[in-house]
Please model this.
Amino acid sequence: MAGLHDAILLDQAGREWRLRDQRDAATLLITFRGDW
Amino acid sequence: MAQHHQAFLDAGVRLFGVSVDRPGQHAAMVDVLRLPFPLLSDPDRSGLIGPLGLSNPDDPREIAIPATVLFTPDRQVEAWRWTSRDYADRIPEPVLLDRARDQALPPATQPAPELGPIEPGPKAVSPEWLPHYLRGARFAALAMGLRHRHLDESVKEDSKAYVAEMDRFLEALRHLDD
Model:
């Protein structure tokens, strides 16, 4: 079982997100191929 | 997923998309598809895509394998995942919602995503062409299923599933104007 680790990723506005800090709700991560 | 966003929040689940694309490409996607949740960039796949084992070794750019992964609020446990065979092989939202509701969580909120500079990549499909693109994919899947139906029953079933997925995408596009 994998966890969300400590990665910090940028969203579409350049805002930093560390999903591991979002502890008040579950997270549904949707990976997609991109190339948009 | 966008259409069911509120239902996921009611089940205590926030949505995040992740791909190797740059923030400007994601801004274009959020804008065109009016997505109500953020898209995160993992360009070198070291943040989430790789650690989750979702880097596609068969792709020259090792882009992400399409998947849906549910994490419990403590962020330590992956509760469930669906790994797709390709971008059209997505789990139906009602099934996913049942999985989310199994967690029995209090409702959550998620603010609308802000947009940065919109910088679509060279392969981006423009909004006006998106329905035609999906109809073309639908037609091709239907034709291939008919052409190869004598080979194996699974070919016909795959074709039907692909056509149904394109219909779902087209239906979601129609709701963009609601």
Remarks:
- The radius of gyration of chain B is 17 Å.
- Strands of chain B lie at 13-19, 39-41, 67-71, 78-83.
